[in-house]
Amino acid sequence: MRWPDIAAVFGTLPWAVCGAVATRLYMPERATADIDVLIHRRDSRAARRLLEGHRYVRTGDLAIGGSTWRSPDAALVDVIERDDPWVPAALQEAAANLDSQGLPILPLPYLVVMKLQASRVQDLADLARMLGAAEPELLDRVRRVARDYAPEDVGDLESLIELGKLEGGG
């Protein structure tokens, strides 16, 4: 799927794609109705001005922090605002972690932490698929980041890795 050129909207503001669109870098793409973008909470006013300046229309608030916007071509964009300690490093790494469309994608270790914390059924399914297909070196990095930022979820992470390997036949 093609998504709006959000890079043209945000310019130099640090941001990264997260959610279903981000997972396509780590597993086969699945259908989704919107694109989720992560920004640091401190950048929320600047992001709002940039979106409005590019004729995006705010359509509501997100329960998890942030807002939903409709692009001029009617695509939905969820702007998730977080201030977790890992966000600055994740956004910096994302700038060089581009998908085929050129969108900066949240690196897998941070995407895993974000999805573990969300704990929705779809997030857990995504995690199993992504982790089951990940190379051992990348899994080691995922484990380190999870230990640092989501230590309460490390047991679940190991279970999801094993489930993903079973599902993928690995």
Brief rundown of the structure:
The chain contains 8 helices and 5 strands. It is of the alpha+beta class and 170 residues long.
* Adjacency order of strands in the biggest sheet: 1-2-5-4-3
The string of secondary-structure elements, in order, is HEHEHEEEHHHHH
Poorly predicted tracts of residues: none
Shape designation: globular
Report Rg.
16 Å
Number of strands: 5
| Distance linking N and C termini | 28 Å
Number of helices: 8
CATH architecture: 2-Layer Sandwich
Helical residue percent? 40-55%
State the domain count. 1
Mean residue pLDDT: 94
Strand-pairing-aware structural class:
alpha+beta
**CATH topology group:** Beta Polymerase, domain 2
Question: How large is the share of residues in beta strands?
Answer: 15-25%
- Biggest β-sheet strands, sense, barrel: 5 strands, mixed
Write down the CATH class. Answer: Alpha Beta
What does the model show?
The protein has 8 helices and 5 strands; from the N terminus they run H-E-H-E-H-E-E-E-H-H-H-H-H. With 170 residues, it is an alpha+beta fold. The chain has one domain: Beta Polymerase, domain 2, CATH 3.30.460. A 5-stranded mixed sheet has the order 1-2-5-4-3, with helices on both faces. Helix 5 runs antiparallel to helix 6, helix 6 packs across helix 8 and helix 7 runs antiparallel to helix 8. The chain starts with 5 loop residues before the first helix and ends with a helix.
